[in-house]
Amino acid sequence: MQKKYIRMNNNDEHLSIGNLFRIIKDSSKNKMSALQSEMFCILFDLEYINDTTVNNYCVGCRSIGAEYKQIFLSKERKYEKDIQEFASNIIGLINVMDGVVHTDIKNKVLFINESESARGLAKKLYNLAKNDNQIINEFTNKLYQFINDGKIYECLVEELIFIVIHKKQPIYEDELKKEVFENVLNDTSISSIDLQEYLSLKLREGINFDYSMKKLADSGNAYASFELGSNEYYGYVTGEPRYDKAYMYLEKAALCNHAGANYMIGNMFIKGLIGGKSKEELECGYNFLVKSYELGNVAAGNLIGNMYLNGIYPLEKNEEEAIKYYEKASNSDYAFAINNLGKIKEREGKLKEAFELYKRAADLGESWACNKVGEFYRIGKVTKNMKLAFQYYNKALESNYRTVCYYAYYNLAKYFYYDGYGEVVLSKDREKAILYYEQASDNGILEATIELLKININKYINIRDNKFYEEIYKLKRIIEGNSAYNEKIREEIENIISELIEKKEINVKVIDDLNVEL
Predict the structure, then answer these.
(1) pLDDT grade for 515, boundaries at 50, 70 and 90
(2) How many angstroms separate the CA atoms of 473 and 467, rounded?
(3) Which residue in 322, 17, 279 sits closest to 163, CA to CA?
(4) Closest CA to 493 of 472, 469, 468
(5) DSSP bridge pairs for 5
(6) Alpha-carbon torsion 365, 371, 377, 382, what sign?
(7) Which of 373, 382, 384 is nearest to 411 (CA)?
């Protein structure tokens, strides 16, 4: 099928040569003299070019020819050595807009920077850049800064270079959408109509949204079924997960070969969230994971790797096979698989390789990896750097609440905020430290609860307020109820209390009561 291209001289969605010429013509005082062929010749330092060729470039029937791109590539190289390389071209375009020929210009760059026509053109092209989905934020931010600093010439140069050298001719949207849909849905029994119906409902979400979504799911729409199943899995409907309900919806999507639904069902079986982890159920879960993996779900590959690593039925323990699955998933930047490879390297004592893997996952924004990198920097397992440790601990807090690593709260409180740390945290902030300890403690971090216990015991010593004793008693109960509580922790708490008894600074009866509870 021959690809069709959209017009790029009649919209605000493309920073293109067609829209450049359209804006110049619209801004010109004498529109009859603002000919495309003249502007094209000004732009490329040409004497003549026929209108047909220019028109093709402007409306998007053809991409800008290699010979014209080469002219700009050469000018770009010269511009790096001589800032005025594009000045004559831009002044030529200003002449078209102003309807006069500006002569006797001593400082061309200054003239352009002070030209209202040039400023207007730069701003309008900047607005096009914001709407162009081929342009990254860094580029538009750069243009904005140029305009804000009054560097109109530099801004226009950047815009022209993008237009000529970097702008790609976009395929006609309908053809592109169809091609993308067909590729994504190729291995499924889901139709593009299902996707359109689902997106239509999402985009016009209203008061009857839940009812409409359920109705769409009941009609067999895989996307609606997957969303409802996911909502039940994460507890968004009632405030707590309902895995049986999740399975009911996800199964509908899985039957249509929805990769994510197959993964979630497999995950529920393997973790025992549904069923009782019998051999039959584990094998069923594994089969769902295999199907999901075949459909391209990298999370399923990572979980299969975990099954090999731990020897979960029906797979036998095989670290080499686990690594193969982790590596495949990590090639798609799946952070959890990268973490798993890092854990293996760390266990083998290959700390530098482990660190590089953790850092790679951390730079993808994965919270556990951010905390791990912070630990490496703080302890100095590879290199000690408290500033970077502080940065990565804080980066760990930016994650979604479902995946945030609460040890990062504990580490920030203990090693930075409670007592301060030199030039990283210049002065202590114990109020913030206690807040972070509480956040970590509320999410099962035993070490944070123990620190809070110490803090409240000290407060009781100094203030002798019974409210601190009540808090001590509550924290002790939390510690005892933690799954990580053991004899060693029991002895640690007894030692803390014994030290206070030796100081004889606290009501002995209160201490005795605590020891009895221990």
Answers:
(1) very low
(2) 10
(3) 17
(4) 472
(5) 171
(6) negative
(7) 373
